[in-house]
Amino acid sequence: MKQLFLTFGFLAAALPALAATKVATLHPILADLARQVGGANVEVVEILKPGADIHHFEPAPKDLAEMRGTKLLLASGKGLESFLDKLRDSLGADVKLVEVGAKIPSIPFEEHHHEHAEKEKDHDHEEHDHHHHGSEDPHWWHSAENMKRAARVVADELSAVDPANASAYAAGAKVASKRFGELKSWAQKEIAKIGKKDRLLVTAHGAFGYFCKEYGFEPISLLGIGRSDDASSKHVAETIEEIREHGIKAVFPEDQANPKVLAEIARSTGVKIGEPLIADGTAKVAHTFETMLAHNVRSIVAALAPAAAK
Ligand SMILES: [Zn+2]
């Protein structure tokens, strides 16, 4: 009899894991965030896995079947997943679809247009003729402050579908936010090694707007936010001018994009090609906010800081 009670005791202890809330994710960083906030109370079903292309992903029938078994579906939002309306219709009311980015302040995608002729005519407006405002930038996960907001969104949504564990989710979000704050402080200290006038970040596609805003860089990208459009020869020429004018030391390819124009720019300016940056947060080697940020900051500091500061 005693043996029997012990067996039941063991089963009861194992129950919370069996009853874990199933959460599907459309970005590896959201999967990691859901695990950080939800701990043992959630089971994460990664629909878009590390290595996948976030700009060209479309859920397959097997993904739909997997999503149907979950309570909550976390998407990046900000227009990244163009299929969400269709998905919401086909999933119905049983799965709550949440665009985590919806509660994060947007920055517009800033395409770099350096108009030298105009600039020479009017020095006072130097700051204003650089940018052409376009569509919304979906790459919000490059900012620690945004990650803190996302942690709160995830905790609130988990609490809505699983109110019994609300306090655990709130505590999970607090721990995650504290960690994001520590990572931001570390990144700021590292980036301080790069002089303010040297903080021009030339990358393959327009993914680093939020990073640049948080750490005081000016972004220049050769491709747009969706990675597919080509750089015009005018834009390449402007970028070359900018690199020469500021004495910038490196340009950066990405784990999923290394357009030929970067090599062309390196050839004509003599700049280095830096380590490929992780732009979309899905690299197999680094697909959490922490590992992505660490990789990017180290690569940027290694290429742009003066040798003595590294
Ligand atoms: Zn991207």
From TrEMBL:
One of its GO terms (biological process) is metal ion transport. Coiled coil: none annotated. It comes from the Bacteria. Its main location: other. It is found in: Cell envelope. Residues 1-19 form the signal peptide. Keywords: Metal-binding, Signal, Transport. Residues 109-139 have a biased composition (Basic and acidic residues). Pfam families: ZnuA. GO terms for molecular function: metal ion binding. GO terms for cellular component: cell envelope. Residues 108-139 are annotated as: Disordered. PANTHER family: HIGH-AFFINITY ZINC UPTAKE SYSTEM PROTEIN ZNUA-RELATED, METAL-BINDING PROTEIN HI_0362-RELATED. Belongs to the bacterial solute-binding protein 9 family. This is Zinc/manganese transport system substrate-binding protein. It comes from Prosthecobacter vanneervenii.
